[in-house]
Amino acid sequence: MSVIAIPKPLREKLGDEATDGLIKVLNDAESTSRKDLATKEDLARLETKLVEKIGDTKAETLKWMFIFWAGQLAAMFVMFKSFIK
Fold this sequence. Notes:
Blueprint: H1 8-14, H2 16-35, H3 40-84
């Protein structure tokens, strides 16, 4: 937590109670804004999840590509066989 120094003229204008209230508001605003920031651990977890998801997607894509190619080869084989007869 950072230390907030209120200039003397402002402290004199506001008074002790208002100065303490201002400091409390500023500290609360700082702590609230820091809660919304991502940490290095958050980013590392996100990266790990993305890598896993990409790996799963690549495996799924390769599986369907193989099935498509096998189907294409079977269709071509049937077509060539029907032309030869």
